[in-house]
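tokens incoming
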């Protein structure tokens, strides 16, 4: 079955005036947000934007062998960038306002970039979780804190872009980027919300109840588009009360977590291959995660997150890729730190694991 790279091969010669913006375009822009535009595109949206085709040339000089993404984003994303930049459809898209921040002490991993389409509309793309442990800890923080720093910055970034570009707005992102895209749209100023056509979350986690129950979320709900693969795991985390579209993945349901890879999502023409509902595995995953999280308080989630990432940091690793090198040394360091934890903390970790297994068995 075809994927988003095949879509560019088949329909890349169709301009946006010949074929209107579609849901597959949203995912392409969302994945382009993972590219390193540093030194190529200014972080100031008032500066002159750069054509996507020009970005490709500069990026190849900066990364001659292609960019490395670590354990999360497949290297085929380099091929997507090249295919998009060379296509008739995307070559005249302009790129502006590239921003990338990583602050370990604040548990912050944030990046965003905006794409100006020929009709002067703008797609504000938020990067999802990258290979850094800081990024993953911020994801876990979503389960007990609102807003996290990235969510605050997403609203500020959208406000900046909207002040410079007066056309229609779409927001989007993959994984945590989808959460940020929806959050920014929901809590933007009323005059910005009116200009938003759609806020896309591509297998992004949900929100705490206070966001879902807010008047702002209810107002934006008709414009929120949540897209998940048939056995979604990440997209089922936390709470959603908006409808979501289920798409077919070429990966088996038995490895549902890996269906988070957007290059496994099936495409036909200008849309994904849609299914009527989640797979049986996807439904079970949703039930297990919902039951588990509903039985754990915010404070317990916080303690679990701090302890887990404390163990990971004790290995000296900064990224998921780091954890896969010198595994024996890193495991030894983590076990040493675990043994030094006080009894209550160790029992808390055991309790979390036991409750998750219990939810799965039920």
């Amino acid at each position: 079955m075809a994927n988003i790279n095949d879509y560019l091969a088949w329909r890349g010669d169709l301009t946006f005036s010949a074929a209107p913006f579609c849901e597959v375009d949203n995912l392409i822009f969302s994945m382009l947000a993972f590219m390193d535009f540093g030194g190529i595109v200014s972080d100031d949206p008032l500066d002159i934007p750069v054509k996507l085709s020009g970005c490709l040339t500069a990026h190849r000089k900066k990364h001659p062998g292609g960019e490395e993404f670590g354990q999360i984003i497949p290297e085929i994303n380099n091929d997507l960038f090249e295919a998009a930049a060379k296509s008739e459809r995307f070559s005249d898209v302009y790129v502006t306002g590239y921003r990338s921040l990583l602050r370990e002490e604040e548990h912050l991993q944030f990046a965003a970039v905006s794409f100006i389409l020929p009709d002067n509309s703008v797609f504000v793309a938020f990067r999802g979780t990258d290979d850094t442990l800081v990024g993953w800890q911020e994801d876990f923080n979503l389960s007990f804190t609102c807003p996290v720093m990235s969510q605050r910055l997403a609203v500020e970034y959208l406000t900046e872009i909207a002040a410079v570009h007066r056309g229609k707005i779409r927001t989007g992102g993959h994984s945590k980027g989808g959460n940020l895209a929806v959050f920014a749209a929901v809590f933007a100023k009323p005059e910005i919300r009116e200009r938003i056509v759609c806020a896309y979350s591509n297998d992004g986690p949900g929100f705490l109840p206070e966001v879902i129950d807010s008047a702002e979320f209810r107002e934006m709900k008709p414009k929120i588009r949540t897209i998940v693969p048939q056995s979604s795991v990440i997209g089922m985390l936390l709470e959603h009360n908006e409808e979501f579209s289920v798409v077919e993945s070429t990966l088996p349901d038995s490895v549902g977590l890996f269906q988070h890879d957007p290059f496994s999502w099936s495409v036909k023409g200008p849309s994904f291959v849609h299914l009527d509902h989640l797979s049986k595995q996807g439904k079970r995953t949703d039930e297990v995660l919902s039951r588990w999280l509903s039985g754990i308080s915010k404070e317990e989630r916080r303690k679990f997150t701090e302890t887990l990432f404390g163990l990971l940091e004790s290995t000296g690793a900064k990224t998921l890729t780091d954890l896969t090198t010198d595994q024996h040394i890193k495991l030894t360091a983590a076990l040493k730190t675990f043994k030094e934890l006080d009894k209550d903390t160790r029992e808390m970790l055991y309790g979390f694991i036991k409750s998750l297994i219990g939810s799965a068995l039920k």
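note: Residues 295-361 form one domain.
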